[in-house]
Amino acid sequence: MKRYMQADSSFTSLVLKRVPPRCTSAVLVEMLDKIAEGQYDFVHLPYDIRNHKNLSLAFVNFLDHTTAASALRWLSTATNCPQGLAPSTQVHWGQIHGLGPNLAHFIARFGIAALDPPYAPFVFLNGISVSRPRQIVGKLGCNPSGVLVELKP
Asked: What pLDDT does 138 receive?
C-alpha cells in the first residue's frame, strides 16, 4: 500500500469512502482531533436529508502535507479503525487541496446558501470552528466559477 507515498507535496486533502451511515460530522471531527487536533480546516460529510444518513463520503483538508500524509497512513491501517468508521472505510488523496479551493468547490456545487448550518461543512481557522462559513468566503478568495473550469475533464 504505497499509494500514499507518491503524492505531490502540495496535497493536503483526503477523501474517505465507505463511511458508515451512522457516522456524523461531530463524530468525524472528534476522530480527527485524536489524530491531528487543530491541524485541519475543512471537514465535509455530505448528508442525504431525504434518507437521514450521510452519503458514505467525507472530505477533509489538513493544514499541511505532512499532517495529511500522516493521517492517511494512520487511517489506512486496518487496526486503527476509530469509532464512527469501519474497517471497510477507504482513504485516498483528494482532488482539491486547500481551504479556499475546497470551499469554492462546495459553493460551486451546492450554492452559497448551503454554507449555512445544519448541513454546511465544518470550517476551522486557527483551530477554532467558524460558526458561519459564509462570512469568511470573501476573505479566503474563493472563486467557485474558477473551480468549475479547472475540474472539467
From this structure: 64
Q: How far apart are CA 43 and CA 50, in angstroms?
A: 21
Closest C-alpha among 5, 79, 89, 98 to residue 45? 89
Residue 126 pLDDT class (50, 70, 90 cuts): confident
Is the pTM above the cut of 0.70? yes
What's the rounded Cα separation, in Å, for the pair 14 and 68? Answer: 7
Stated as kind and residue range, the H or E segment containing 53 is strand 53-54
Overall residue count recorded for the chain in this entry: 153
- Phi-psi label, residue 108: left if phi above 0, alpha if psi -120 to 50, beta otherwise: alpha
**What φ, ψ does residue 26 adopt, rounded to 5°?**
-65, -40
- Alpha-carbon separation of residue 96 from 19, 28, 50, 118 (angstroms): 19, 19, 27, 23
CA distance 91 to 75: 7
Which among 24, 130, 20, 15 is positioned nearest to 75, based on CA atoms?
15
